[in-house]
Amino acid sequence: MTGTPEFFDSRQGVASLPPPHDRIKFTTHGGFASQRQPQLQLEPFGRDRLIAVATRLRDEYPSQHPQRHRAKITDASKLLLAS
Description:
Layout: H1 5-9, H2 18-24, E1 28-29, E2 32-33, H3 47-60, H4 66-72, H5 75-82
Antiparallel strand pairs: 1-2
Helix pairs in contact: 3-5
């Protein structure tokens, strides 16, 4: 199930019904989300995170042509995107 923050947290949404809201509400403890709750917190991709994911995929994804991947996602382009 997906929904906007208003659906989950506003009085017009599921928060108007305490029993289901108690089961699906999003909570954190010490800045960390519980792994047992039904909602996940998805962080947006910023420039640094996107670069980290792209280079990790480039380095770990099995390919018949790894040189082609290294040519498209170079360490130099990583530095250009970071600036």
